[in-house]
User: What shape does this take?
Amino acid sequence: MESEPKLAAGSGGSVVVEACQACGDADLQSVLFLGYLPPVNQMRMIGARPHEQPAYPAELLYCPRCEMVQIGLIVDPAILFPPDYPYTSGTTRILHENFADLSRECAELLAPAADDLIVDIGSNDGTLLSKFADGGWRLLGIEPTEAGQLARDKGIATEAAFFTKGLAERMKDKHGAAKLVTAANCFAHIENVHDIIKGVVALLADDGVFVSESHYLISLLETVQYDTVYHEHLRYYSLTSLVNLFAMHDLEVIHARPIPSHGGSIRVYAARQGSRPALPSVKKMLAAEAARGPMAEQLSLFKDQVVASKTELLTMLHGIKAEGQRIQAISAPSRASTLAHYAGLDDGLIDCILEIDGSRKIGRTLPGTLIPVVEESRLFADQPEYALMFSWHIADELAPKLRDKGYKGKFIVPLPRPRII
Ligand SMILES: [Zn+2]
Assistant: This one.
């Protein structure tokens, strides 16, 4: 698996994936086609007349050679991650707790010495690095968007740049080698995965460790999360596929475990081959993945489940509308856009989407639709009979909160199979 991918050029800065993003093999199998999706972060103002906008084919592909599941079109990152990219990690409690857990685990496993360098790729507003602030370590964030200023305001050194091998070499010359490099929820988002890993290898000390957190393919399959397929997510990792990918760069996975972020993620520790002992967690997780059976069969079952889930949701929503009842939706995460487009939800079915006060999405419409995003208070004033949960993966946390605040209707949880609670 020495070859690297030769991607074919597409139009308008996007790139069609003609060969596996990881191993370069051209024998890619189609898993699922979700139609054409608009960029999830382009939300127009309520009342603005819709005008021409791009939409990109969302096809999920599988590489039997290296086990990598991946999207079939790489959209120009300048379109997906504009400088005013609205996502800030500091706003989500679950992610705060996860980052605190990550820093504790790293401190325990790696015992970095005072003054060791810790680098976070895609450091966003500095939330993860801030969890390392009490250890006496030197911290450096790499963040191309304006969110980096929020980190600098907190006193965390942050380089305004995309992470590349070239940047990694410059950072090493300037700051020295890193004991720990982290990449939380961005390792599946960056186009040239080999360039990132080469950069990590260049930056790491001989006994350094690279920790990545990414959406976990097995969670995606188990809970039929087709809504997490959109163009920001270029690859959908199993541990098996990551072991294959890292091996191409003489890196070895030394620890791995599932974590709850984003409806099911995987935290993976990798180091130079032979530099550190691998913990039993690695073999255990790989065995659990193998025990699920051939990936091609799992993906075929997944497609059937996706289609069934969509048709059941539509049947449910049409039944509710036929009785003259109202449906509003709770929260507008990126995944809401995929679900709405694939299932065909529009402002005829969903009256509005509710976001908590202060959300930058209020006053805008869900991408590619006229469904308005409004303040949460509207839910309690209108008391619609049904509230559809786009953030269904945290329904157990959200539903009681909305009940406490006074919502009396029923909740629709759209995935894995639509149900009413
Ligand atoms: Zn491959």
Q: What stands out?
A: Residues 20, 22-23, 25, 63, 65-66, 68 surround zinc ion (CB under 6 Å). Confidence is low (pLDDT under 50) at residues 1-10. The longest strand covers residues 204-215.
